[in-house]
Amino acid sequence: MTQDPSVQKAVGGRKKTVSFSSIPSEKKVSSAADCLSFMQCGCELRKVRPGSRLYCRFYTLDVEHACLRWEPSKKDADRARLDIAAIREVRAGKSTDTFRHNGPAEHLAEEAAFSVIHGDEYESLDLVALSADVANIWVTGLRYLLSHPAALGGGVGAGEGAEGSPGNLMRAAWLAAEFGAGDEDGYGIVPEDVAVETICRLCPRIKEAKVRLRFKEIQRSKEKLTSHVTLEEFQEAYCELCTRPDVYFLLVQLSKDRECLDAQDLRLFLETEQGLSQATAESCLDIVRRFEPSDVGQERGLLGLDGFTRYLQSSECQLFDPEHQHVCQDMSLPLPHYYISASYRSYLLEDQVHGRADLGGLLRALQVGCRCLELGVTDGLDGEPLLGVEHNPGPPHHHHHPPAPATLRSALELVLAQHLRKVLGPRLYVPDVQHRGRPCAPLPTPEQLKGRVLLVGKKLPPEEEGSEGEVSEDEEEIGGGGPLAGRRMTIPGEEELGVVLVVPPPPQPRRLRLRRELSDLVGAARTGSRSFYAHRAQQTQGSPPTTPSGPALPDPPFWTLCSLGEGEAGRLTNEVPEELVGFTKRTLTRVRPSSVRLDSSNPNPQGYWRGGCQLVALNQQTPGVMLDLHRGRFAQNGGCGYVLRPAVMREEVSYFSTQGCVPGVPPQTLRVKVIGAHGLPKPQGSGSKGEVIDPYVVLELHGVPADCAEQRTRTAAQNQDDPLFDETFEFQVNMPELALLRFVVLDDDYIGDDFIGQYSVAFECLQPGYRNVPLLDVSGELLPHASLFVHVAVTNRRGGGKAHRRGLSVRRGVRRGREYVNLRNIGVRALDDTFRPAGAPLREAADLREDTQNATVNFKEQCGLPPVAKLKQCIQSLTTRLQTSEGPPGASLAMREGYPCLEPLGNLPDNTRKLLSAYDTMVSAHRQLIENADSVQEKIAQVQREGMEFHEELPRLVEKEGLKGRKQSKAVESFAWNITVLKGQCDLLRGAKMDALDTLRQLALACEAFGLTAPPDPPSAPQKTSDHGAHAVHARRGSTQGNGRI
């Protein structure tokens, strides 16, 4: 199926599409026999040939299952055929040279392509189906014939053999037992109500109306006068309604067409696809015991189709990484190093005008993980403080509109301080008063604040003596930053009515009286944007610029929280993002929604997060896209409300780009295959008419500007609630720590609110492999039984998750055509001379990494596998080609100086020898990297250390060179660039060596697992082995529990 390119666009709106073409209904396939029947009927496939040529042919499987035939053809009818016995393997996807080197093939869907490898020379017949499900049918049917030679020439018997596979027999026995439990009289029939209830119990996602409709169709087709159901009808209805084709095709691929998985098959799946490198036979049998419903499967340790479906739908296969269900990040760093979940006026139940104050809103905000709450307190009865704001406090009989913002009386401040001390007691985190007036120490850590409360508010200056004093109150910003006098502001939602708000000229900051007792309880003083300008002036060592609220102020001698309005924060993130990030390295910064958001709507928090702002306060009572992103961000790290900011926002010297690109570090590639959806409800408000929906899925990537993208699937027209999509999308991710992936399911047929469900997840929480994505409604509640089924692969990952660094963003050219990361000229001779020696080791590090990556990708391609395949899958494919009719494989594992090498045995075909040569090249490249990485890394690290010695003297050196203004800023930026590049390249090379050692361990274990064992070494003198080789030997013989990888 082709995809409308107009819907592959960046974020910024969606377009509904209407198609007048006839779309074939999804093929209901529940067994290999169904696949063979379809292939015998035949269908049109496109044949891809070298030279950029595509031919449409009609392919069929002959009635004896002995050969494939096609027409039209210039060949004779007897020659336009391919014997099944000549087929060596069937590859899914575009994995042959014909696909890789054919220009038009790049535009063909990966999911709809497959190749038939045949003959002694491993020739390829490369085909593309009209849809992914048709390709799956052909791949499944051909693989079944290859694994069941007895089916060739068997005619009808072959279909009966497919029905009699171990998996089908297990399923039939289990369904018969469930049916028998309802057949109390033993007559072989049950009432329709009992049959419907049984199927709905066995498969909860199936709707009762759907089951009843199917039984009525069966009765009508057989012209039955009774509504009782036989065992055959019960099994037919269950298999048709409850078999998920996407899971069936996957099961057949994994089980060699036995339609069930044993412990070895399941372990291979967990290791190669799901990233569970510590999977054991015992853990696989435990999965069988917990998810396989049939007694036969339990006894024989086999996982059938229904058990495999239950496992994939379980929490163990969800997209969200279980590691992040608990606190897993370092919590011992100062508060400015974290994003902190914050709420804005969550005590209001509705909007900012009519919303009633209630403690329930605060409790709900705490329950969802908010760690920064805003409390509005006004004068209440009997001298007690009252929760609320000046125009809508809690009890309605206290509604008043004072002419100026309400303030607390001095006596009430004293009462409030007494209540805080009495209620919170030791849980109140109060800074040591003896530090008053001294330079402030770093803010406390989340670990130190565990179970404590830190108050933020106005604070008396240290020089103020007495029981009370004056503090200034910064004016609240409306809409944007800068002077607001005379600005016309449109109220959200009232544009069509022409309602505007004219902001009067702001008065001078008011002076407020504040009691010492309340001031001493405040741990961090709330300031405005003037604290940012003070920091900016200090950094530039020039005269402080004028600010919207007056002259810049010196840094206060106590902890502060800089509170910015939505508009002011947006202006800073757009105009001076680097300076804002530098400011937030030591100072907490909070962004509050604009005052014109009278409807309690929320701004997009992503823009402020990428500007370094730690606290973006949102109205937790207002659902929508912005709150979805907020919840997705803070679901990680155990949902504790604290998430570590990216390293470039925490390190003292680092280069930050507005686009989010880290110098010298290639972007990662996120590949998401949307396979299907299940249990989709109708959109809210769609009424009770009709059960059919036209769903499609939108994938949104939120992050730094370079990462933001949006793509969508085709519309599954008239597909009810279980559509299949089988479409793959790729995203480039430059800063994974800030990236969020959001799945949105919409109805293309519904006019109005077409929202069905969504799920937002942080990039660092993605699990690789086949995953279940639970869908949430607009308020964030789980939709019962509604989910997406996807496959996720992340390449060139440099942190987080369980996926390996596979480094697929490689260049295929020779070394002289590579682009190397370069250091920048600073303009200070001493610094430039210090950084210059790093040029050669930087190029050597890049060559070591890319040579290894290229060799690995080439070996995978020679095995007929995609670049994202695991090496264990490659060794499995290699072993198949090395099998000989005489018995022993055509190569054996030999450890040469601690490195796993394969020695050919006997005469091998040229293609197999070419594959072994690619294996040797890969091992050699890994060896070069392992043995040279430490020395190259040390050279780079030495330059970095020498450069950092100039950090404190950088302003003086720049001034000495006479650099001013933009040249001065450019020199400082180039220094940060060089330090970031050197550190990043050290980290990349260190990770590449770890991956290389892990790769050698994978290869050795995989060769042993598939029988490519080496003969015992004869007794001889001790072999001279390098330290790196000893590492490889130890990795091969050590436990698989070592570093958590294969």
Would you give an account of this structure?
It is a single chain. The chain is an alpha+beta fold and 1046 residues long. Helix 3 (132-147) packs parallel to helix 9 (245-255) and helix 23 packs antiparallel against helix 25. The longest helix has 45 residues, at 965-1009. Keywords: Cytoplasm, Hydrolase, Lipid degradation, Lipid metabolism, Transducer. Its EC number is 3.1.4.11.
Topology:
Elements: H1 32-41, E1 43-49, E2 53-61, E3 67-71, E4 81-83, E5 87-92, H2 97-100, E6 113-118, E7 123-128, H3 132-147, H4 156-163, H5 166-182, E8 189-190, H6 192-202, H7 208-222, E9 229-230, H8 231-242, H9 245-255, H10 263-272, H11 281-291, H12 295-300, H13 305-313, E10 338-343, H14 359-367, E11 377-379, E12 385-387, H15 410-424, E13 455-457, E14 468-473, E15 488-490, E16 500-502, E17 510-515, H16 516-521, E18 522-527, H17 530-540, E19 546-547, E20 550-551, E21 560-565, H18 566-575, H19 577-584, E22 588-592, H20 605-609, E23 615-618, H21 625-634, E24 642-644, E25 668-678, E26 695-702, E27 709-712, E28 724-733, E29 740-747, E30 755-762, E31 769-776, E32 782-795, H22 829-835, H23 839-862, H24 871-882, E33 891-896, E34 899-904, H25 910-948, H26 954-960, H27 965-1009, H28 1027-1037
Parallel strand pairs: 10-23, 13-18, 18-21, 21-22, 22-23
Antiparallel strand pairs: 1-2, 1-7, 2-3, 3-4, 5-6, 6-7, 8-9, 10-24, 11-12, 14-17, 15-16, 19-20, 25-28, 25-32, 26-27, 26-29, 29-30, 31-32, 33-34
In short:
The chain has 1046 residues and is of the alpha+beta class. The protein folds into 5 domains: 32-162, Pleckstrin-homology domain (PH domain)/Phosphotyrosine-binding domain (PTB) (PH-domain like); 166-322, Orthogonal Bundle (Recoverin, domain 1), CATH 1.10.238.10; 335-475 and 509-649, Phosphatidylinositol (PI) phosphodiesterase (TIM Barrel); 662-795, Sandwich (Immunoglobulin-like); 815-1037, no CATH class.
